[in-house]
Amino acid sequence: MNIKPLLNAEVFAPLLNPARYKGARGGRGSGKSHFFAELLVEEATAGHIRAACLREVQGSIKDSSKQLIEDKIEKLGLSALFRITEREISGPNDSLFIFKGLSTNTAAGIKSLEGFNRCWIDEAQAISRRSLEIATPTFRAAGAEMRFSWNPGKATDPVEVFFRRCEGD
């Protein structure tokens, strides 16, 4: 059985190119969250990243993408390079992963993340227009990327509208 690592899967190849905004839209089990988690881990081993892993609602750290990133670190055999605490993950090259819910943070709390060069919003079909409007200008460091993964919902979902607008630019 020949299993391709997600980073080498052809469907995700366009997401490996530098871009300010990247989106992966697909159904459950399509691999989009796994792809972005693995990409963040690989980027942390290659250079310095500060990644804010966000969701609209995160009642607790258990509701975050933290476990998925931990699983990727282990799968890639990189556990010795990372320090995992209850709330965050630090790694080589002074890299850092934090996990937050957008709806429970104030605008000032999100704006304080402006030094981060990676933002991953998982389950982005649930993101509100307000959260998107606060988060989008926050991640603007040189080379910063905002990544969104979501399941198809309504054409009026803010993430769907946002990416249709981006295509028009």
Spell out the helices and strands N to C.
EHEHEEEHEHEH
- Radius of gyration equals 15 Å
N- and C-termini, Cα separation: 43 Å
Largest sheet entry: 7 strands, mixed
Q: Which regions contain 5 or more consecutive residues with pLDDT less than 50? A: none
User: Based on DSSP secondary structure assignment, what is the total number of beta strands?
Assistant: 7
Strand order of the largest sheet: 1-7-6-2-5-4-3
Choose one word for the global shape: globular
Mean pLDDT, as a whole number? 86
- Broad structural category: alpha/beta
Amount of helix: 25-40%
**Count of individual helical segments:** 5
The percent range for strand residues is 15-25%
Give a short summary of the structure.
By secondary structure, this protein is of the alpha/beta class. 30% of the residues lie in helices and 20% in strands.
How would you describe what is shown here?
The protein is an alpha/beta fold and 169 residues long. It is built from five helices and seven strands, in the order E-H-E-H-E-E-E-H-E-H-E-H. It has helices at 32-46, 66-75, 107-111, 129-138, 158-168, and strands spanning 21-25, 50-55, 83-84, 88-91, 95-101, 118-121, 145-150. Strands 1-7-6-2-5-4-3 form a seven-stranded mixed beta sheet, with helices on both faces. Helix 4 (129-138) links the parallel strand 6 (118-121) and strand 7. Helix 1 packs across helix 2 (66-75). It starts with 20 loop residues before the first strand and ends with a helix.
